[in-house]
Amino acid sequence: MNTEANQNTEANQDWVARSLAAVWHPCTQMKHHERVPLVPVARGKGAWLYDPQGNGYLDAISSWWVNLFGHANDDINRALKDQLDTLEHAMLAGCTHAPAVELAERLCALTGGTLGHAFFASDGASAVEIALKMSFHFWRNRGRSEKREFACLANSYHGETIGALGVTDVAIFKDAYDPLIRHAHVVASPAAVGVDEAIAAMRALFERRAANLAAVIVEPLVQCAAGMAMYDASYFTQLRALCDEFGVHLIADEIAVGCGRTGTFFACEQADIWPDLVCLSKGISGGYLPLSIVLTRDDIYAAFYDDDVTRGFLHSHSYTGNPLACRAALTTLDLFESANVLAENRRKSSLLHEALQPLSTHARVRNLRNRGTIFAFDADIEDKTFSRRFFANALQRELLMRPIGTTVYMMPPYILTDDELRLLAQRTRETLDATLAEAT
Ligand SMILES: Cc1ncc(COP(=O)(O)O)c(C=O)c1O
Fold it and tell me: Which ligand 1 atom lies nearest to the CA of residue 225?
């Protein structure tokens, strides 16, 4: 190794050591980094992230499902540079600005005008908190303050703040905080028991508790954090009818599945219904800046419109509707329009589907599945270290992947070339075989 490479390696190690000393990383048992590598990322371009030595890693999970159009995207960069020289931030209480207005109007138009009011926040969990509070406060303003309970699906994930954990059913995130949590009703998921049984279970709950239920919150089509558990859109259609019959709000958490990820811009379009409240985040800003949005209907908005300040929705975050984040989102919407993304994604999805087919007959692979540009399979192994070992083996093959337990999944940016898609399929298989071989 030459001197320059030596210096780069030392700089890398220094950076990693300093991070481990000073940065408390998310969703991480820090001690595991004694064995699991921490990747120093110096720059990104397209689907690739690069360390300071120039080693590339194909970001096969869009950096936690946010990066839709690649890192350092030319269009978003240009728009943000322009926005930076125009208006970096202004509070959205008492003031307004073009990027927030335009984004609200364009998202509303994407719902055919049904969800005509946009409330801004900064991340997915806060959008969920807002939707829950908004639903409860709506009923309270309508004189129904006994409607204060919520329902969610088994294995649901809606974020990790205390309120969002109340409608989350993933033990690893929830159990430690159990005494702090106000629990929702947890109802059978269609991904586990099928559509008919899940609808029957929800009907049974509604028959008992509808008078006290404000809303049910659901991840349409794919319960991502539960391990990419997929179900039929007809569940969501029937759930809408049930909510109408019993007077319960339907909240669609499209934070992970929205923005084209399942094949339509909103996943709930596939069920041919509109919920009362939709939560969007993650991909909406193209993976650039923290932004979330709750979209809702006229009748919900109208219930807050009053001379009395306490009937208003008094929720706020300092960076609500940040112009830079909104501008990134507007450019993301432009990219959807200009590049015919949804049609092109269908083609790429078939290509990746085809390339992954050898895995369908792999002796240690179960339930190879896909919806839109989400692909997943379960490795047939009982091993708590599988995910960490797979991660490390993937890095050696220039892939950035983080299995959920023994579920290996891909959620790549939409800009992968055909060659990159084939490479992803081939290296995933190699990584799986290497990880399984270590365990035996
Ligand atoms: C369906 C769903 N809801 C909510 C969240 C929480 O979003 P955030 O991590 O931005 O708080 C996530 C994050 O993965 C999610 O997948």
Answer: 16
With residues binned 3-state (H G I as helix, E B as strand, rest as coil), the percentages for the chain, rounded to 5, are 50, 15, 35
Q: What sign has the CA pseudo-torsion 138, 140, 143, 146? A: positive
pLDDT mean by block of 10 residues, the chain; 440 residues: 61 85 93 92 97 96 98 98 98 98 98 98 98 98 98 98 98 95 98 98 98 98 97 98 98 98 98 98 98 98 97 96 98 94 97 97 98 98 95 97 98 98 98 89
Q: Delineate the domains of the chain, giving CATH numbers in brackets.
A: 3-72+340-438 (3.90.1150.10), 75-338 (3.40.640.10)
The answer, yes or no, to whether any atom of ligand 1 lies below 6 A from the CB of 59, is no
**DSSP-derived secondary structure for 88-150:** S---SSS---HHHHHHHHHHHHHTTTSS-EEEEESSHHHHHHHHHHHHHHHHHHTT-TT--EE
**HSE, side-chain direction, 13 A CA sphere, residue 304:** 17
> Distances from the Cα of 115 to the Cαs of 252, 276, 423, in angstroms?
12, 8, 40
Q: How far is CA 257 from CA 51, 101, 140, in A?
A: 29, 24, 30
DSSP helix/strand/coil, 28? coil
User: Is the minimum distance from the CB of 283 to ligand 1 under 6 angstroms?
Assistant: no
Pocket test for ligand 1, best of 221, 255, 285 (most atoms within 8 A of CB): 255
The answer to whether 415 and 349 have CB atoms below 8 angstroms apart is no
Compute CA distances 318 → 2, 66, 120, 122, 323, whole Å.
49, 22, 11, 9, 12
**How far is the C-alpha of 101 from the C-alpha of 104, rounded, in Å?**
5
In this structure, which long-range contacts are made by residues 381-386, counting pairs with CB atoms below 8 Å and at least 24 apart in sequence? 381/406, 381/436, 381/439, 382/406, 383/439, 386/435, 386/439
**Token pair recorded at residue 233:** 């859109």
Q: Report how far residue 187's alpha carbon sits from residue 206's, in angstroms, rounded to the nearest whole number.
A: 11
Any ligand 1 atom below 6 A from CB of 219: yes
User: What does the DSSP 8-state code read for residue 384?
Assistant: T
